[in-house]
Design a protein that fits this description.
Layout (H helix, E strand, L loop, with lengths): L9 H14 L4 H8 L3 H8 L7 H11 L13 H18 L4 H17 L2
Length: 118
């Protein structure tokens, strides 16, 4: 069974990014400059054609003063959300000190497990 706790919906995420940016009265170019990326990249995120990497998404959240969870489809069910948060903390604890190449391998394996369990 695939984990449904947090799904990435590029279109919804893009709409949220645009909302957050416009609330701060920033243009795509201004936000891109603040993040060190192009306005084309911001446009692609906002239109749902691409998703930002986590580092960029954290930057967007910080600049726009938006909680990062706003950009994800996180379930309203409190029990599921608590389970999801517990799992994230456990994964974080397990991965502390791993080299980046090993973390990338772990992510690929977890993604494959999700694909197999669909």
């Amino acid at each position: 069974m695939k984990n449904d706790y947090c799904k990435i919906n590029k279109l919804k995420m893009g709409q949220c990014i645009k909302e957050a940016r416009t609330k701060m009265d920033l243009t795509q170019e201004e936000l891109g400059n603040m993040l060190g990326i192009s306005m084309v990249a911001i446009s692609r995120y906002e239109n749902g054609w691409a998703s930002p990497c986590l580092k960029t998404l954290i930057g967007i959240a910080e600049i726009t003063q938006t909680p990062i969870e706003r950009f994800f489809d996180i379930p309203a069910n409190k029990k599921k959300l608590d389970e999801y948060n517990d799992a994230l903390y456990k994964i974080n604890d397990l991965c502390m000190g791993f080299p980046l190449k090993d973390l990338k391998l772990i992510i690929r394996l977890l993604q494959r497990m999700g694909d197999v369990n669909e």
